[in-house]
Amino acid sequence: MLPLNLHHTAIAVRDLDGALAEVKRLYGLEPVSRERVEEQGVEEAMIPLGGSYLQLLMPLSAESPVGLFLAGRGEGIHHMALQVADIEAALAHLGAAGAELVDTTPRIGGGGHRIAFVHPRSLASTLVELVEVE
Fold first, then answer.
1. From CA 48, how far away is CA 106, in angstroms rounded?
2. Long-range contacts made by residues 118-121, C-beta under 8 angstroms, separation at least 24?
3. pTM value?
4. What domains are there in the chain, each with its CATH number?
5. Which of 44, 78, 83, 132 is an active site residue?
6. How high is the pLDDT of residue 2?
């Protein structure tokens, strides 16, 4: 069940176009994908960075999880995502080890990847996303 890689680090932003312009201006980086993920309530952009990605997340509504995060904490790091080979095995391992799971079964996230979240109480107040990449 060991993670294969840091898949991405996600930053919650209020203005995706503005954030993308700043990332390009400051760091010369551009996204390889941008999509609306209605089920997650976000519009996201994935920017390659070394062996992983920087993900910028903009809420589609103030009531979405990212919208609530922005209201309570402001812009900033939202979660880190770990790439796993078998998401069901990872969830079973983490559950057996006592991690508090937000998702006990995978769901579909950006890029069509199967994902699941582990509650921030399980690791230093940090939301962890598991991403299965084939």
1. 24
2. 118/94
3. 0.93
4. 5-132 (3.10.180.10)
5. 44
6. 74
